[in-house]
Amino acid sequence: MVTSLKPLQIGVMLESVQLSDIVGIDILGSVSKEYLDLTNTSIPVPEHLFTQAPSMTFHYVATSLSEPAFMTPSLKFMPTVTYETCPRDLDILIIGGPLPDHRPAAADIFMKEAVEKSKVVMSICTGGIWLAHSGVLNGRKATTNRMMLALAKELHPEVEWKDARWVVDGKFWTSGGAGCGVDMIVDYVKSGRFGENIVQFALETLQIGVGEKPSRFYKA
Question: Which residue ranges does the record assign to the DJ-1/PfpI domain (predicted)?
Fold first, then answer.
């Protein structure tokens, strides 16, 4: 099954971040042609959905490819690109939240170069502070984990920090903690960038953002 939609390039900065910060990438992946191909092997996918599903390539970025990179909780993953080799002209750049002192120089250079050319830039949790450290949020509205807002204001007073679940300022989408990041990405996929039917299918298969009622739960 082939679609005529432009393939999307998505970069994910997840070195030393919390796993929960970047789980939203699976929401994006669930509106992709690759996900429909996988799902179609066990659950018949309506043919018209393939015309709404773009192909996606995810670039997992870290300092080195020679060894696994760390993510909490004690999780190691193999990156696919380094800060030097990752494409800069991304459709979406996603930045997870590391500890505030995790600031590889190569990451700052990459963010400055990628932000200039990328269409959408997202940060989750303390990823907003990481992004601000590169200087690209100066003069913009943004947010980060609510517990870190005071520190963010102290470190980067040139950013207009907001106490909000997420903030959209131009192509920058910044969220509070991990749960806020999931909701932000749900809002992003529902904002008209993807076909309504493919978004509904993806969210229903994930059972995210579809208004589950308490009566659907059972406790023995």
Answer: 59-190
pLDDT at 210 over 90: no
185, 28 Cβ separation under 8 angstroms: yes
Domains and CATH numbers, the chain: 8-216 (3.40.50.880)
Q: Distance between the two ends of the chain, CA-based, in angstroms? A: 44
Predicted TM-score of the model (pTM): 0.91
Residue type, 4: S
Stretch 47-56: mean pLDDT: 94
Contact at 8 Å (CB) between 95 and 132? no
107-128: b or e for each residue (b if 16 or more CB lie within 10 Å)?
bbebbeebbeebebbbbbbbbb
Nearest partner of 120 among 185, 43, 74, 52, judged by Cα: 185
CA distance linking residue 167 with residue 146, whole number of Å: 13
CA dist., res. 14 & res. 18, Å (int): 8
Contact criterion met (CB below 8 Å) for 59 and 93: no
Residue 79: C-alpha distances to residues 4, 48, 85, 103 (Å): 29, 34, 11, 17
Per-residue pLDDT tens over the stretch 94-105: 999 987 777 888
* Alpha-carbon distance values, 98 to 37, 57, 149, 188 (Å): 33, 23, 15, 22
Q: Mean pLDDT across the chain, nearest whole number?
A: 91
pLDDT recorded at residue 1: 38
